[in-house]
Design a protein that fits this description.
Elements: E1 8-14, E2 17-23, H1 29-38, H2 45-54, E3 56-62, E4 67-75, E5 80-88, H3 97-108, E6 113-118, H4 120-128, E7 132-143, E8 162-165, H5 171-182, H6 187-193, E9 198-204, E10 207-217, E11 220-228, H7 231-244, E12 249-254, H8 260-267, E13 271-281, H9 288-291, E14 297-300
Parallel strand pairs: 5-6, 11-12
Antiparallel strand pairs: 1-2, 2-3, 3-4, 4-5, 6-13, 7-12, 7-13, 8-9, 9-10, 10-11, 11-14
Domain N-acetyltransferase: 19-153
Organism: Rhizobium oryziradicis
Protein name: GNAT family N-acetyltransferase
């Protein structure tokens, strides 16, 4: 984002409210946290710090300094960015604040392909701005427990594969496999995510063919990204995280439904909590070959904000 001489960038009058637009990096972290809590989002302060370190955006601030809205963009390499942290205070959600913030964010990402995961409340807004719905994301969460039939049993791995822990030396190979699945390079994001995470890699012929990461997030831990070419591979790299976190709160955001991977998640205590909609503008995000099980894909998102 172009440097500004002041954190004050614009202003708008919405009925009885007057807002100023500020660079989101000038806003106190506790105020952003309070805003996210007001709409029921589970972000910890550390989760917000991570997002601020990887994106740019704006906040709507009223005349007495309260932060009542936010919106951000996150560059992913190449010509692609995600949009996220689009929040408006509940009492202002029909006042046009979200549209005003989004207009400023979109001005900053001109010429880039865009993706986001929309709540039900925001879907109509994004549709009117030109975003197209592609798929449903299922937010699955709960107290983790291995399916009863798998307890005490050896891990069932795909033929000719081994499972091992991810190390820092795996970063380049992980970045390359994630690029194939995500369809945009995320080298910077993954290089910052890896030190915060523990992960497992599925190996065949000395190459990583699937992997997953788990890290602290929200109420407990989130497993993601999960990158694999099949349900069998995705389960193989996810199962160890379930086993090592039994009794703890886990979350997986996935687009998989009514397939072995989705059923494994449900049997592991991670029930459907909510859904959001993956939407795109200036180019489709999801490859039909991936949706038809013919290519490596994202079985679990890093987060709804980062995809």
């Amino acid at each position: 984002m172009t440097a500004q001489p002041s954190s004050l960038l614009a202003s708008i009058q919405l009925e009885s409210f007057e807002f100023t637009l500020k660079d989101i990096h000038s806003i106190d972290l506790e105020q952003l946290h309070s805003l996210s809590v007001s709409v029921g989002w589970p972000h910890r302060l550390d989760d917000l710090r991570f997002l601020l370190a990887h994106g740019s955006g704006f906040a709507a601030v009223d005349s007495i300094g309260r932060v009542l809205g936010s919106a951000m963009s996150f560059p992913m390499g190449g010509d692609f960015s995600t949009i996220g942290m689009v929040i408006t205070s509940p009492r202002l959600q029909t006042q046009g604040t979200g549209r005003w913030l989004m207009d400023h964010v979109l001005e900053n990402v001109k010429g880039r392909r865009l993706g986001l995961n929309s709540t039900r409340a925001a879907k109509r807004l994004y549709s009117t701005m030109g975003f197209t719905a592609e798929a449903t994301v299922f937010q699955c969460q709960g107290q983790a427990t291995l399916p009863a039939a798998q307890k005490g049993q050896p891990e069932a791995l795909p033929p000719s594969t081994q499972l091992r822990a991810i190390t820092p030396d795996d970063l380049e190979e992980i970045i390359a496999l994630d690029h194939l699945a995500y369809r945009a390079p995320r080298a910077v994001l993954l290089s910052q995510l890896l030190p915060l995470s523990k992960g497992g890699a599925l190996i065949r012929d000395n190459k990583i063919i699937a992997f997953s990461l788990i890290r602290p997030f929200g109420r407990g831990y989130v497993i993601g990204p999960i990158v694999a070419s099949s349900d069998e591979e995705a389960i193989a790299v996810t199962r160890p995280h379930i086993a090592s976190h039994e009794g703890r709160f886990l979350r997986i955001d996935t687009r998989e439904k009514s397939v072995p991977f989705a059923e494994f998640i449900r049997q592991s205590g991670l029930e459907l909590f909510d859904t959001v909609t993956t939407m795109s503008m200036y180019g489709r995000l999801l490859n039909p070959d991936q949706e038809n099980g013919k290519d490596v894909k994202i079985f679990g998102l890093v987060s709804q904000t980062l995809g």
